[in-house]
Amino acid sequence: MNSPFKLIHFTLVSALLVASWGTLATAAQPAKEKAVTEAKTETAAQPQTAIAGSEVNPFNRLMRVVPKRHLPPTQDGIHDPTNDSTQMLQTPLEAFSGLPKSQGDFGNGVDWVKALNESKIDARWDRNDPKAKPVIMDLSIVREVKGSMPGVGFPHKQHTQLLDCSNCHPAIFIPQKGANQISMAAIMLGQKCGVCHGTVAFPVAECRRCHDKAKPVAAKAPAK
Amino acid sequence: MPSLIRRTLIGRMLFVGTLVLATAFVDARPAMAEYGDVIMNNNSDAAGMRPAVFPHWFHRVRYSCKVCHADLGIKFKAGGNNIDMLKIMDGQYCGACHNGTIAWSVENCNLCHSGKPGTPTQVHESKSHELLSPAKPPVGKK
C-alpha cells in the first residue's frame, strides 16, 4: 500500500526535476530561445539554487576562481537589497567591461591611467564645460629607497591629469623635492600617498607601479 | 530592469548567470563592496533614512577628481564634509550635479540612500588599512 505511493511520488519529483533541467537547458541555448516563454524562464529561476549547489566536483574546489569582488550592488553587503532603487544601480563589472585591466585584480581591477590615455573614459575636468582640459605638469620626482627595493618615481603627469595642485600642496606634501618624509608605514596608515592609494587610486598591493625605478636610479627626473 | 531582463536574451542569460554566481557565493567570505565606495552615515540612520552610498568608480569614469575635490571643495575624508540635504538642495556637494540638469535630481532619494541601515560611515575596501586593523573599526571618521 505504501510503496506504490512512494513510487508515484518519486516519479513525480524526478519528472519535475527533469522538466526544470529542460527549461534551464533551453534557456542556455540561443537557438531555442525564442520558444521559451517568459513564464518558463521565471520558473527556471527557482530550482537553479538546488542544481548549482549539487555540483560536488568542480575543477577548482578550494581555489577561488572568481574572488568575491566587483559584486553587483544587491549582493555587495553595503547596499540594501530590499531597496527597489538598489536594483537600478550599475554593476561594477558592467562599467569596467570595456576598460583596460590592471595587473592582478586589485582595487577596481582597472588601469585607470591607461583607460584615460586610451580615451576609454572621458573623465571631465569641469562639471559644466565638457571640453575643458587639464594643464598637465610633466615633472617626475625620484625617491631612492634603501635596500633591495627599486626607487619610487612620483609622476606629476598622471596626477595632474586628474587632480588639482591644491589637492596635494601643501596639505599632503610640501612642494619641494625631498622635503617630505614618506614611508610605507605611513602609506599603509592612509597618510601621504596612502590618502588616495588604498582608498580610491590603485592600492598598495601594486608595488611595481610606484617602485618602478631600477637600481642604480636612472637620472630621469627632468629638472623642469 | 525587470522588463529589460525579460526582453533581451542576454538579459535572461545574465539573470540566470547571476543566480548561479549568487549561490556559488553563499558560504564564502563576507561580502566586499566595490573599491572606493563611500558610505555616508553621519545623520541618515538617526533621521530614519538609509545611509547614502557614493560610488567613486562610477563617477571617475565621468569626472576627474579635481571636479569634486577642488571645485566643489570636498575634503578627502569619508564623513568629513558634514554633507546634509539642505546643502545638497542648495546646490552644494552632490547637489552641484544631481540637480536635474547635469544628472538626475534630488527627488530620487533611494538611488543615493541605498545603504544597509546601520552601516557606519566608511570607505571600501581599503586593503592596506585592513592589514593593520583587521577588525575593521566602524571608522567614526568625523
Question: Brief overview, please?
Answer:
With 224 residues, chain A is mainly α. Chain A has 9 helices and 2 strands, in the order H-H-H-H-H-E-E-H-H-H-H.
- Which class of the largest domain in chain B in CATH terms? Alpha Beta
Which H/E pattern describes the elements of chain A? HHHHHEEHHHH
Number of helices of chain A: 9
Strands of chain A, total number:
2
CATH superfamily of the largest domain in chain B: Cytochrome C3
**Quaternary structure annotation:** heterodimer
Name the shape of chain A in a single word: globular
Describe the largest sheet of chain B: 3 strands, antiparallel
Number of strands of chain B: 3
Strand percentage of chain B lies at: 5-15%
Report on the architecture of this protein:
- The complex is a heterodimer of chains A (224) and B (142).
- In chain A, helix 1 crosses helix 2.
- A two-stranded antiparallel ribbon of chain A has the order 1-2.
- The model of chain A is unreliable at 1-5, 10-51 and 217-224 (pLDDT under 50).
- By secondary structure, chain A is mainly alpha-helical.
- Chain A is globular, with a radius of gyration of 27 Å.
- Chain A has nine helices and two strands.
- The longest helix of chain A is centred in the first third of the chain and has 27 residues, at 2-28.
- Among the domains of chain A are: 69-98, no CATH class; 101-213, Cytochrome C3 (Alpha-Beta Complex).
- Chain A has helices at 2-28, 38-45, 48-53, 92-96, 112-117, 156-160, 165-168, 184-188, 207-210; strands at residues 140-143, 152-155.
- Chain B is mainly α and 142 residues long.
- Chain B has two domains: 1-30; 38-132, Cytochrome C3.
- Helices cover 35% and strands 7% of the residues of chain B.
- Chain B is built from seven helices and three strands.
- A three-stranded antiparallel beta sheet of chain B has the order 2-1-3.
- Chain B is globular and about 30 Å long.
- The termini of chain B are far apart.
- Mean pLDDT of chain B is 78; it is low at 14-30 and 126-142.
- The chains are: A mainly alpha (224), B mainly alpha (142).
